[in-house]
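Protocol step 4 of 6: record predicted structures for both targets in the notebook before any analysis. Target 1:
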Amino acid sequence: MNYRTERLPVVTFTLLGLNTLVYLLSLYFAMTTQGQSDAWIREHLWLIPATSPWYAWVTSMFVHANFWHLFGNLIYLFLFGCCAEDLIGRWRFLVFYLVGGFLAELVFIATLPGHFASPEALGGASGAISACLGMYLCLRANADITFKYVYLFLGSADYGEWEIPAWMAIGFWFLEDLFRMIIDLLYPRLAGGGVAFGAHVGGMLAGMALVLLFRINKPPRPEATPGAEILSPAEIAAAATAARPAPTALEIPTIYLHSDGIQTGPFTLAEIQYRLAQNELSASTLYWSAGMSQWENIQDLAGR
């Protein structure tokens, strides 16, 4: 993902754990009841528009049909959930994740022939995870995503990687799902594989809409971009010593700077303001400190 989180993605890890726990419990009961529990789980925890209780709108986001269904979803939740959570904040991410999953379910129901009277069952985290992709796309559309490959052929092996922008990778995935959703709508008999393409499309659009609705459009932390130079503590100290005023006894350096692909810090607020007064920092310099969800322009610290 070419992104380094600054905070432990607690919400994403919790969601990963809950999805795994629900699957393991369902597997345990299936083994101890000779599969008889599967019918109960499908009736009560999966979302069946015609018959499900209200809580199935939530529980359906945590059930999976098999190991590979779970495994594929958890990979994407880990990759995009960690980034989205770090970019927009933990509680906002949790709300967006659940709301995105709910809207994805609504879109899926809208694509069913019977709509709310349909007996079709929906289960899995892919709708909410698609919302994570939508959030990420709005916030880091131009960031590179690295793809790695390895192949074996007639005894020879090779591996490598390539990078493409997020808008291209996620956009291709979205258009593919949109195309398959339209095919399912036009030719229901051809629908197969049990994949809820409508939920994918709905989740993706929901994630994008939520970010745009709340105007979360700040750029991501640029130190995560490939090739950015991170100076060592010794280099930072050598470069900044001449410009540093004597810190007060109560000041603790907590502010990091990013300019021209180089990250430096930490500095105190007094040091930053001194360097601003001396015109040592360009107007495009960004700063970040613990608790901030993204970098801000250094001019915001002038005169504080």
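Target 2:
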Amino acid sequence: MNERIAEKLKESILTGRSMHGYLITGAKSASVSLAEECASLLLFGYEAVDKLILSPDYFRLDGGAKVDDIRSIRRELQTRTYSGDNRAIVIENAHLLNDNANNAMLKMLEEPPAGTYFFLTGDELRMLPTIRSRLNIIRLGQMSIDDIKARLIALGGDERTAEECAYKSAGEASVAVALMTDEAISKQRICAIKTVLTALGGGLDFSSTKELCESRNSALDSIHFMLSVCHDIIAIKAVGNADKDLCNQDYSTELHRIAGGIPLNAITGVIDALSLAQKRLTPAARPQQILDKMLIEIAIAVRETASR
């Protein structure tokens, strides 16, 4: 995380010079942490993230929120604060909000009540331009492999394991920690990669989706690993022998084989299918149903480009 940018944002909050809306981009864990720290500064005057859940002036949603959730917050903003003068709203993965939720979000951003501050995190390029235009964008950047490796070593990992998990995480420190400490996540990664490789090869294997969808979060993690496969294939097609930079170096042979036989526009279609599945994974959705449909859409994207 860019510490200088983060500290500058916190300083603006403490000195009363903050904007009413921010979009914080970069590594997911770092972006969310900064949003929470800023919210606690606004509500308490100091960093106390653990106290946020106890504050009635703090609201937290993720990109799977329904339009009714957004409208409920909007109604709450019309009332007086419970303590102090400020309210803070943190929305994680805001790029996953559906159209109705985005419209409700836009109305809140257009006329924010005094003392109301929004901290959205997510993918800047997948946000609606009308939403982005009303937010001050804070770009933290992705953590480097070396930074993630150093964090894992500090947590007790040996150098080799730390480096392997750093690459496999696709630049997400929280995923790297999970890969190092939770064998179930490692097994899920393997299953997710094998599933998407099969789909990229034009096949369909629905037997694995149940294993990938024990919960909404596990389904989202599975898509994260699948997207890392797509990014690796793009890197191979762009650079050629890019093994040292691949997230999934343990699947190098399969990645090179698929990269040599699939056009770039097919990979773009696959990424679109994966991104759409992320949006469909609302808290009320059935994860396995969403991933089954996603696999069909991936296979269609591959076969349509192959037939041209």
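Step 5 preliminary note on target 2. The mean pLDDT is 90. The domain at 182-306 is CATH 1.20.272 (Zinc Finger, Delta Prime; domain 3).
Proceed to step 6 after PI sign-off.
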